[in-house]
Amino acid sequence: MRRTIYTLLIAVGLCATACDNMKNTERTAQGSSTPAITDSQLEQDVQTALNSDPTIRAANLKVSADADKNKAEISGTVASEPLRTRAIDLAKTAHAGLLITDEIKVVPMEPTRGGYTEDQAREERAKARGSSEKIGDSVDDAWIHMKIVGKLIGDSKTPERKINVDVVQGVVTLRGSVAAQEQKTEAERIAKNTDGVKSVKNELVVMPRSKA
Fold first, then answer.
1. 16, 31, 52, 182: least buried by Cβ within 10 Å?
2. What is the pTM of this model?
3. Residue 75 sits in a domain of what CATH number?
4. Burial of 188 (0-12, 13-18, 19+ CB in 10 A)
């Protein structure tokens, strides 16, 4: 009988010791786990990844991150679609499974008037026709159109590709609708400040967005 009781006590003691060891192991594992990454750390990691490419670094893209959701937003402008793709691919390497919101705009580098060719003017007219826009027969008109459209796309104050631009003999007509008077004013300012523009007709209609 005594031997049985003694055996039970030993078994209970061993069980208690094993449980304590398991708890200590869990505490050690929890204490040594890597702390969660912060938003600023994730932003820095993404920025470092972007800066690893000199061309992307020169674009000076902006990064905002939400570490809890493992998401990052990249914004800014680059000169070509391949550069935008390259930037997104680099950003994804910053953290495993990182979700990227692409707010990068492609704004091609503007050639000088002296370097702007008839072939480029022909391509610009074709794109304009596809957007129901008018360009005069001169290379100058096509060059002006290219510059104004590029500036409108790159300006955060104007709605991207919601403004139609006609250029005939240096006279610019702005058509379409915008959500605020400030956008209409900004579009006119951009057009007037473009080299080669003689005058601007601002026919933009202000149509405030309805609130849900």
1. 31
2. 0.56
3. 3.30.1340.30
4. middle
